Inverse folding.
């Protein structure tokens, strides 16, 4: 498994940096445009929440890209831990665009763990 880690401010002017790295990984993995857009929506939605620096670790597996985003604040942790029911909020958006959303702990702080699976394409770089 390969991993690319970025640490950057939660400033919208840095979102293109995340998109660039994610796009490079998606190209290497022969992801569809739709899968790439789903990942970008998920990451942008998380980056819009909170303040200060954020770390994004992108892990490339043969059949998926995993994104670890954090640390996140307790309010976001609580929101993502609830069943969204009929509410159209962040949890519902993430559940729609990625295959798995979990809250994990790293260095004693909450992180969001996203996984987007995709079919393994012949000739992929994995």
């Amino acid at each position: 498994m390969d991993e690319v880690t970025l640490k950057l401010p939660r400033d919208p002017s840095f979102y293109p940096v995340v998109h660039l790295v994610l796009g490079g990984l998606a190209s290497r993995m022969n992801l569809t445009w739709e899968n790439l857009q789903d990942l970008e929506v998920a990451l942008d939605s998380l980056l819009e929440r909170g303040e200060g620096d954020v770390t994004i670790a992108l892990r490339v597996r043969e059949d998926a890209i995993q994104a670890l985003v954090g640390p996140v604040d307790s309010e976001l942790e609580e929101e993502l831990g609830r069943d969204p029911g009929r509410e159209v909020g962040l949890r519902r958006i993430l559940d729609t665009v990625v295959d798995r959303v979990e809250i994990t702990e790293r260095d004693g702080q909450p992180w969001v763990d996203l996984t987007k699976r995709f079919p393994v394409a012949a000739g992929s770089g994995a």
